[in-house]
């Protein structure tokens, strides 16, 4: 079981890292915009804001992972069936395959997941926007916490792995690993690292990343099916 859980952490980190192009599209503009209005527009002034903003995002991801991990672990325990989490793992494998197809720009079906969080986001979005322009790095932390709930197919796909983690702590850890994987893209945007941004947005990079995720998803699904049968 420890090996499976460890692989989930690695998979979550890789999803965040390989989904960099999606992160740039969804949150990149926010990462760049949050530093507008900061006196003395140089990197030394931006870093505290970027660190606090991204720390806030990771806090939200961890909270969501803990909630999902705890809820599904509880349901699995109540069901009394040992195959409950294994079946969920098969679903997580399917989600990873769909995510790979999305990142590779072959099939965009996973974007329909983002509609699920639109109602919640309508309530949160005004609160996040009310914090702009940021007055201090401390204000970037709650801004990041709120923005972490932005509807995102990439996040929702990773939450399926948090769901099969078996506990609140493991679910939080899976989502934290995912958040850490997104950091290179988000820091690149905020610090204006143009060369890294170009690599992350490159279609060949996206498709190479997608193929790796696709193979891992198929492998995970195969193992889950064997355990069910």
TrEMBL record:
Domain Urease accessory protein UreH-like transmembrane: 11-218
Protein's UniProt keywords contain Phosphoprotein: no
Transmembrane segments: 12-38, 58-78, 90-107, 139-159, 171-192, 204-225
Protein name in the entry: Sulfite exporter TauE/SafE family protein
Organism: Photobacterium atrarenae
Superkingdom as given in the UniProt entry: Bacteria
Keywords, comma-separated and alphabetical: Membrane, Transmembrane, Transmembrane helix
